UniProtKB/TrEMBL annotation:
Keyword check for Transcription regulation: no
Name under which the protein is recorded: Monooxygenase 1
SUPFAM superfamilies the record matches: FAD/NAD(P)-binding domain
Gene encoding the protein: LOC105051573
Domain FAD-binding: from-to ranges: 9-321
UniProt KW Oxidoreductase keyword: yes
Annotated keywords: Monooxygenase, Oxidoreductase
Similarity annotation: Belongs to the 3-hydroxybenzoate 6-hydroxylase family.
Taxonomic superkingdom: Eukaryota
GO-annotated molecular function: FAD binding; monooxygenase activity
């Protein structure tokens, strides 16, 4: 039996935050796309996500900001506690509009705003090639389907097969791992309305309210073993071991987590020089989100940057291929030229922004959790020189109108 062959205009690989946001941004511009997701349902790993004003601006452009704001309280302050030094710093983050969203809420809202059949689940891409006749991309699925696309957007995360096909280097791994979870307090929590971080040596323990009942917590520390636990019982045990000297109510919070929310993740990041040297588009193929710029969680900006990518990419494509363009049967040659220009504009617009975020994330990561005093000092100096200090200035970025 011969292979099934399909033809589509714009194909997005990956139905995470970036893939769904990109499909929604294109939809808002009147451009149809197909998202291919390897899992069988929408799936949001990682419990919750801190969303700052730059990401809210992007969500507003996607038309889902107002709906999502009802799902998480505003967190007007953050408090850092250095346990070794017995020092505490309380900062206002009112102008950064920080809220912590359940990942499920974000993913479901993006998905629910898409037209039906925009996402094909259970469709894993296993190889990428080029059509020798047209030079457009060809995708091969795990179950033998051949998908020919005019435009291919890789939103397939940090282990991206599309990035590999562009010749991009795989991200690096830190020795640090993060356990994240959600704890529900049926009668309301009384943890206060602020983002709390305890910093001790190379470890960070944090918690942030999502609403009046639900709290997101995480613990980040060096964990050299290659594999981490998968069973929620062992994940909780491991997390509790890291915070055994912490106040009883914090240990209780971790003990009472929703087992389904728990994840153990090794931190991966793309080096800033990779972002300078990397070629993020070739022909009519490009990448966005973690597939382009996975970064450590120290700024809480990976997801926000993915949402910004979605807005800028859809805007660039729509500028070159306005509504109805694909249906108007333009020649392949013209379509290729226009797409290449759009993708080059997108990469040009995003490069400096993601480079700055990646650098700031590496430096803040070193400042917060490096065991070396020298590295911490150098990081602080560089942060002051290049970014005006370790503050939240990066959140004031505006990706502009869709
Ligand atoms: C510990 C931690 C904390 C974080 N905290 C924050 C935070 O507070 N705020 C913030 O903004 N960001 C945060 N981030 C970053 C954020 O989670 C990511 O940047 C964001 O999820 C990236 O979204 P994405 O869609 O690019 O990739 P992903 O979420 O990885 O989605 C990729 C999708 O592609 C699918 N896929 C992969 N390969 C294939 C294939 N071959 N075929 C088909 N489908 C495929 C996957 O199943 C997945 O659905 C954090 C990250 C970590 C690790």
């Amino acid at each position: 039996m011969g292979s099934v062959e399909e033809h589509h205009d714009i194909v997005i690989v990956g139905g995470g935050i970036c893939g769904l946001a990109t499909a929604l941004a294109l939809h808002r511009k009147g451009i149809r796309s197909l998202v291919l997701e390897k899992y069988n349902t929408i799936r949001a790993t990682g419990a919750a996500i801190g969303v700052f004003i730059n990401a809210w601006r992007a969500l507003d452009q996607l038309g889902v900001g107002a709906e999502l704001r009802t799902k998480a309280v505003l967190v007007p302050e953050n408090q850092d506690v250095w346990r070794n030094k017995n020092a505490t710093r309380l900062n206002s983050c009112r102008k950064e509009e920080l809220r912590c969203l359940k990942r499920n809420d974000l993913i479901e809202t993006l998905y629910n705003n898409l037209p039906v059949n925009s996402v094909r689940f259970g469709c894993q891409i296993v190889a990428v090639g080029t059509d020798p006749l047209t030079s457009f991309p060809i995708l091969y699925t795990h179950d033998g389907i051949i998908i020919k696309a005019k435009v291919l957007i890789g939103c397939d995360g940090s282990n991206s097969i599309i990035s590999k096909s562009l010749g991009l280097k795989p991200p690096k791994s830190l020795t640090n791992c993060v356990i994240r979870g959600l704890t529900n307090y049926p009668n309301g929590h009384n943890i206060g309305n602020y983002f709390l971080r305890h910093l001790e040596g190379c470890m960070i323990f944090g918690r942030i309210p999502i609403d009046n009942n639900l709290v997101h917590w995480f613990v980040d520390w060096p964990y050299p073993d290659k594999e981490g636990p998968k069973d929620p019982k062992f994940i909780i045990e491991l997390a509790i071991r890291q915070i055994k000297d912490y106040p009883a109510e914090m240990i209780e919070m971790v003990k009472n987590s929703d087992p389904a929310s728990l994840t153990f993740t090794r931190i991966r990041y793309q080096t800033p020089w990779h972002l300078v040297l990397g070629n993020f588009c070739r022909g009519t193929i490009t990448v966005a989100g973690d597939a382009m710029h996975v970064m450590g969680p120290f700024l809480g900006q990976g997801g926000g940057a993915a949402l910004e990518d979605a807005v800028v990419l859809a805007r660039s494509l729509a500028e070159m291929m306005p509504m109805g363009y694909f249906e108007a049967n333009a020649s392949d040659e013209e379509l290729r030229k226009r797409t290449e220009t759009a993708l080059k504009n997108y990469v040009k617009e995003r490069k400096l922004r993601v480079l700055r975020l990646a650098m700031q994330s590496v430096l803040v990561g070193l400042l917060m959790s490096s065991p070396s005093k020298v590295k911490r000092l150098v990081s602080l100096v560089l942060l002051i020189l290049f970014f005006g200090g370790p503050a939240l200035s990066h959140t004031q970025f505006d990706c502009g109108h869709l």
